[in-house]
Amino acid sequence: FSSISAQIYYGPDGGEDIARFEVPKSAYKEILRSLYGAKLDNRPMKWQVLGDIVITHTTGTVEVGLFWTGDKVGAFRSGGNYYRGSSDAELIKLISTAKKQQSESGRSRV
Known about the structure:
The protein is of the alpha+beta class. The chain is 26% helix and 36% strand.
């Protein structure tokens, strides 16, 4: 992968929005792991948009739209298909942690 960026549009329960940022390479594995093993959902609900993850690699770009389901199992869309997997809380935590890592690494370079 050449890069991964992420953002949270909606901080559930009054949580903070996270503007788009470049995810540190050290966080790639956990974020991608959270998407693996998801099951195709042929009957998606009208969930609230949570945010997105954009994965760029040599063969192109994949956008993963994240949704707030309020359930134990989260939802996302990629390539026109909807999937159920991970959880809202896990994705928010992973993106928040990656943002903190990115902010801390930026400060240490100054």
